[in-house]
Amino acid sequence: MDARKYLLTAIVALALLPLAAGQALGNGERIRKGDPAPKAEASAPLLSREAITVEGRIVYLGDLFVNAGEHADVAVAYAPEPGERAIFDARWLYRVARAYRMKWRPISAQQQTIVQRASQVIERADIEDTILAALVEKGAEPDSLLELNVQLTRLHVPTNVQATVGIDDITYDPRTKRFATILSAPAKDPAGRKLRLTGRLHAVVKIPVAARVLGRNETIADRDVKWIKVRADMILPDTIIKAEDIVGMAAKRGLRPDTLVRQSDVERPVLVERNSIVTVTLVYGPMALSAQGKSLEKGSLGDVIRVKNKRSKAVFEAKVTGPGRAEATINAAAELADNRR
Fold first, then answer.
1. CB-count burial class (<10 Å; 0-12, 13-18, 19+) for 228
2. Which listed residue, of 62, 139, 147, 272, carries a Cα 20 to 30 Å from 287's Cα?
3. From the CB of residue 106, how many other CB atoms can be counted at a distance below 10 Å?
């Protein structure tokens, strides 16, 4: 593809030579980045440039050669599109130099001049925002997620214009959510680039996700959560969509930022570990009894777990009330009393 582009540039450049030989193209102002092209002195050698960045549509002899003298403002080729580049090889440069009786020969067949066209960049996000704003006027939901059918990352426009994008035409089908639009960059510029884009809108849902990497068993605080928009059709049945279903929970496995969190990814923080010592309390009226037992299973706040009495070895149930603490049912009073004797 690059070879075809360079060949096309060379053909266009050759087409300009007859015109350039008589006079410079209209609007002969030359704007470029690089060394200026002063009027050549008699002893100044004529040298080709290895690379040059131009801002205008035209490439001049002074862009390609140092010390081009009175020929510096002669137009010899069209510049590439903004943000792109063209390569002028040794053979082409030699033919141009001969056409204007300039004493220059290439050092080798590999000698070349690379011409880069300066540009301003319009990012994809700005393009999508412009399209969505136009679709909202057509009745689309403002919170919709826009999907383009092309891999468009950015647009390049000349440096001497405003870096804006405009909508020349747009159609929208509310039933299928599909759209087609014609953009102009820069906006309202008849000579600007025209681009036809198609795509569709998707309904979105805001969901809570991890704001940072969370390790296993790490309790999730409110500051560890942020909200993102995702396509509604990407939501799984067990995807967490409420803050109360994630804040205060513990990660069962490592969680990555900006990733859907499922109910199976989190659990209530474990307050009593399996085979750990747990203090069991029985409150009955004004009486309160406490004893220690061995937890036979892990438990979170509010879980009912099995506890073994350390002395009688009897097993009873208790409700987890805090870290290393549980509350026994009335049926366990006898076991607790035995432990107190």
1. middle
2. 272
3. 16
Return the residue matching tokens 């979170």: 300
- Closest by CA position to 107, among listed 92, 95, 90, 89: 90
Question: What does pTM read for this prediction?
Answer: 0.59
Q: What digits encode the pLDDT tens for the residues 75-99? A: 999 999 999 999 999 999 999 999 9
Please return the burial class of 188, using the count of CB atoms within 10 Å of its CB with bins 0-12, 13-18 and 19+: exposed
- In the Cβ-directed half-sphere of 279, how many Cα atoms lie within 13 Å? 8
275: left (phi over 0), alpha (psi -120 to 50) or beta: left
292-338 pLDDT per residue, tens: 888 899 888 888 889 888 777 888 888 888 888 988 866 554 555 55
Residue 186 preceded by cis peptide, ω within 30:
yes
Cβ-contact 183, 168 below 8 angstroms: yes
**DSSP characters over 75-136:** EEEEPPPTT-EEEEEHHHHHHHHHHTT-----SSTT-EEEEEE--EEEEHHHHHHHHHHHHH
